[in-house]
Amino acid sequence: MKSVKQHRAAIIVMNVFVALLCIAAIAGYFLAPLLSVRVKVDLSADDLKQMAGDVSFEGVEVAYPDPEPVDVELSFETLDFVLPLFSGDAMGKTEALISEKADALAKELTPVIRVTVEQVAEETIKEVIKEEADKIVTDQAQEVIEEYIPDVTEEEKETILEEADLTETYIGQKAEEALALLNSGTTNISAIQDFAVETVEEVFSKLKGTGRTEFAELTFDAEAEQEVRDIVKENLDAITDEFGDLSTDEIVDRVLEEIANGLEGGLDTASAPVVSLSARAGDTEEASEAEEKLESNISGYIRSHLVGESSTQIFFYFTIAAFVLTAISMLSWLYLLIKVFVKGFTMNPAVKLKAPILFLGWLPFLVFFIIPSIAFLAVNALGGIGALAGETLAFIAGVSFRSSGLVACAAAVLLILLFIPYGIIRRKLKLELASRITPQEEAAYIAANPALVPQEPVVMEHTVTDEPYQGGSEDPEAEEPASSEQNDESAPEDGGDAPAPYEGE
């Protein structure tokens, strides 16, 4: 009996743990996205140039670097697969879901593209500064030479520049100094102008230092200084904001607009019209018009390629599959939870743990994470998506998956660890209860088989006395003489012998 109580208590404690695992596995499907797909985008300079084209404005040529890889993630909640199936218009809800995810993807892509384009703008400014340093040194030197030596030839110019040490090496050095100034955080145009003035003054000094008589009277006066400042301001005005700081906003907006225009050319406005984002001004309060246009066109571009009869049906079937897989998993855990609760009120509270441990309990994790992850590992081993799908998808550097089914899978693993000790105690408790005879069973057995049940022996009581034995019956009352009345009543009238007293049977 004691062993039964111990084993039953152990099972109850483990059942509480099992119940918590069941609740966690079910709740996990609603606490995180059922499916998340993260794509690593690695665009090259050629990819950016193809997307935006050759962008230039006000004398500024846009330079396209190789940007850093960025991640884009698209998530699907469990309810996303449930609501369309239980609505009156399943296909309509599915199309709405596609449009919603298209908007979400556009909202995810737009800031990513902006970060990439900002790298383009930064590279462009660097190229502009380098070109500006080159122009300042070269143009100013040649203007001075032409002014003081009117009939100078190109060969003579080259000779004078070499004498003054105004070579490509010197020009490159000045360009690096300009970039260092820019990288130090000094972006105000006045600082760039000061640097240009110092550089031109140095050029004048080098020309005068050649010893040529033509440059004996060469001086860098206030008029020359103002001329240099005006040239710098004119050349950098396109990338200077109202506060006089070098700004990438103009370049970024221009490139974003060109990318948006490129996407607009691929829109199917009949099936998926582009919607204005002005209604969501609260969400894009800090976004420029170019960003809003880009986000709108990305969303429209995605919808135009996904919203259709065939694609909607495919996505609807995918929704059904996802719902079925999740429902099977949750039902297996719910079934175990109900069994634990119901059997907790019986003498044997032990249950079987196999249902969730088998693939039933973690089907979504198997389908949405394990299988696609293995598939993309194989794709990467074969050279990547670009090698298999062509150049159109070469910018996809990697794909990773996540699923809330991980919680159910972890719960199944814990059940596997609990399975052996739980099974041992469960079998022991079952055997102990099977061999145990209850009071009800004992009473029923005695009632059915009275002859087979041994009877208790009858114990006779004897009285011990010091008085001498009088003989007669063992019953003392039988030895007492009858009273005179009894004798008189029992004596026969004729004087015969009286009847003997009754001694019992």
Poorly predicted parts: 268-285, 473-505
The H-and-E topology, N to C, reads as HEHEEEHHHHHHHHHHHHEHHHH
Domain module count: 2
Helical segment count:
18
List how many beta strands DSSP finds: 5
The separation of the N and C termini measures: 52 Å
- Percent strand equals under 5%
Radius of gyration (Å): 51 Å
Mean pLDDT over the residues: 78
Biggest sheet, in brief?
Answer: 3 strands, antiparallel
Structural class comes to mainly alpha
Order of strands, main sheet, comes to 4-1-5
Please give the share of residues in helix: 55-70%
Q: Give the overall form.
A: elongated
Question: What does this entry look like structurally?
Answer:
The chain has helices spanning 2-31, 45-52, 78-82, 90-148, 154-163, 168-183, 189-208, 222-236, 249-264, 289-306, 309-343, 354-357, 363-381, 385-389, 405-435, 439-448, 476-479, 484-490; strands spanning 35-41, 56-57, 60-61, 70-76, 396-402. It is mainly alpha-helical and 505 residues long. The chain folds into two domains: 1-32 and 308-440, no CATH class; 89-307, no CATH class. The protein has a three-stranded antiparallel beta sheet with strand order 4-1-5. A two-stranded antiparallel sheet has the order 2-3. β2 and β3 (60-61) form a beta hairpin. α4 packs across α6 and α4 (90-148) packs parallel to α7 (189-208). The protein is elongated and about 170 Å long. The two termini are 52 Å apart. The model is unreliable at 268-285 and 473-505 (pLDDT under 50).
